Amino acid sequence: MSERILIIKHGGFGDFIQAMGGLKAIRAAHPEAQITLLTIPSLAALGRQCPYFNEVVEDPRVRGLAWQQWRRLRALFSQPWARVYDLQNSDRTDFYFYLLTPLNIKRVWCGRQRLAHWPDRHAQRARNHTLERIPNQLALVGINAVPAPSLDWLPPFSSLALPPAPYALLVPGSAPHRPEKRWPAEHYAVLAASLWQRGITPVLLGTKSDAAATDAIAAVCPFALNLNGQTTLADIASLAQRAALVIGN
Q1: pLDDT for residue 158 is more than 70
Q2: What percentage of residues in the chain have a pLDDT greater than 70?
Q3: Contact status, residue 183 vs residue 219, Cβ threshold 8 Å
Q4: What is the phi-psi region of residue 102: left when phi exceeds 0, alpha when psi lies from -120 to 50, beta otherwise?
Q5: What angle do CA 138, 142, 145 make, to 5 degrees?
Q6: Residue pair 189/223 in contact by the 8 Å Cβ criterion
Q7: What is the distance between the alpha carbons of residues 58 and 47, in angstroms, rounded to a whole number?
Q8: Nearest CA to 20 among 125, 142, 147?
Q9: Nearest-angstrom CA–CA distance, 116 and 97
Q10: pLDDT > 90? residue 41
C-alpha cells in the first residue's frame, strides 16, 4: 500500500506559487505516495490542476463554534499519515498540531512546532523569505534538492487573443485587505502613457476588486488594453511569458 502524505499550504496566492519548488521536491522524494494537499478554497482549483497531488482538501479556516468543520479537520489529522509537511507554519497550524493531531501523527510531523518530530527551529526562520524557509525546513528530512518555483505544468496555450508585441503587463491590485501595498492608480496611469509613447502597449490585469484602479488607468491612457476580470491563470502565464516587462505591487 502506498504511503500517505499530507501537505498543509494555505495562502496567499503569491506565497503558494513561491512554494511550488518545495511542493515539487516533496513529490520527487515520495514518487509513489498518495499526497493530499490541505489548502484554502480559493487555491483549491489551482491545487487540483497541479500534478504534485493526488487529492486536494479545502480548509475554510473556520473560527468559533463551527463544530462540524472542526470534526472534519480532527478526522483528517487522525488518518494514518506517513508524514505531514506543514509548509504554512502559522498560528492556525500550530493549533492544528497541538489540539487536533494525535500523538502518533505528531511523530511524523515536519513544521515549526517545538514538539514536532522534525521541528524547524532555524534561527533566522521568521526573517527568511519563503524561498529560503522551505528548503531549510525540507532539509530536516533529507530533501536537499529544492528547485526554483515554476508553473511549467500549466497548459502551454491560452484561449486569450494575445496583444501584439511589445507589450507590458501592469497589475495595480493586491490583496483587498492590504490596500497599503498598492502603488496609486494615478502613478500607473502616468506609467501607462509613458509606455505607450515608447511603442509598448500597456495591458491591465486585475480582478473585480481592482476594477477602480484599472478603469482609472484606462481613462488616462485609452490605448491601454484593459483585461480586468477576463483572464484565467493560464492566460496570465501566457501573457507573462511574452511580455516585455511586468510591473505590479
Answers
A1: no
A2: 98
A3: no
A4: beta
A5: 70
A6: no
A7: 10
A8: 147
A9: 8
A10: yes
Cell numbers found for residue 203: 495591458
Q: Residue 38 pairs with which residues in a beta bridge?
A: 8, 57
Please, which residues have CB within 8 angstroms of residue 69's CB and are 6 or more apart in sequence? 60, 62
Distances (CA, A) of 247 to 3, 45, 156, 172, 182: 43, 26, 22, 8, 12
Q: In sequence order, which residues have a C-beta less than 8 Å from that of residue 133 and are 6 or more positions away? A: 89, 120, 122, 125
Reported as a single tens digit per residue, the pLDDT across 171-202 is: 998 877 788 888 999 999 999 999 999 999 99
Decide: residue 189, CB within 10 A, 0-12 exposed, 13-18 middle, 19+ buried. Answer: buried
Give the pLDDT of residue 143. Answer: 97
Long-range contacts of residues 23-27, Cβ cutoff 8 Å, at least 24 apart: 23/50, 23/52, 23/53, 23/87, 24/52, 24/147, 24/150, 25/138, 25/143, 25/145, 25/146, 25/147, 26/52, 26/85, 26/138, 26/143, 27/51, 27/52
Average pLDDT of the chain? 92
pLDDT at res. 157: 64
Model pLDDT, residue 139: 97
CA angle 81/83/44 to nearest 5° reads 80
Show the beta-strand stretches assigned E in 67-138.
Answer: 83-86, 109-111, 118-119
Query: What integer is the mean pLDDT of 82-105?
Result: 96
Taking the model in full, what pTM does it have?
0.81
3-class DSSP state for residue 162? coil
